[in-house]
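Quick one, tokens below. Sequence please?
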């Protein structure tokens, strides 16, 4: 890739007298790209073992003997695993309807303004 880029820059520079000026940004961005790619590869290699460990932890669960006996020795993970769910916020229907009424009024006023200005 770099050899081809330098050849193109050399040809664009008519014999090489101006090619450093023409190709400096292209070569600089190529160097930046290769540095970023090597950094990404290094980070991915560091993250891979952690991802594997996290995946193993998500498959594990802990249960006391009493819990297992209470579940009639059923070892299904879903019976013991704590599932965390985000609390969902729902606005009161009256508040939503009032908002819709106000928006509808604003839209109606804007449409009326448009119709009156076009006449």
């Amino acid at each position: 890739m770099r050899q081809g880029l330098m050849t193109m820059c050399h040809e664009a520079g008519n014999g090489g007298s101006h090619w450093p000026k023409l190709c400096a940004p292209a070569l600089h961005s190529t160097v930046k790209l290769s540095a970023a790619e090597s950094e990404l590869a290094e980070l991915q290699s560091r993250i891979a073992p952690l991802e594997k460990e996290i995946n193993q932890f998500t498959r594990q669960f802990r249960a006391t003997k009493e819990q297992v006996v209470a579940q009639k020795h059923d070892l299904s993970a879903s019976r013991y695993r704590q599932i965390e769910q985000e609390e969902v916020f729902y606005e009161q229907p009256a508040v939503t309807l009032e908002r819709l009424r106000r928006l509808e009024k604003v839209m109606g006023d804007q449409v009326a303004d448009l119709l009156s200005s076009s006449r």
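Residues 19-59 form the longest helix (41 residues). Residues 1-8, 10-16 have pLDDT under 50 and may be disordered.
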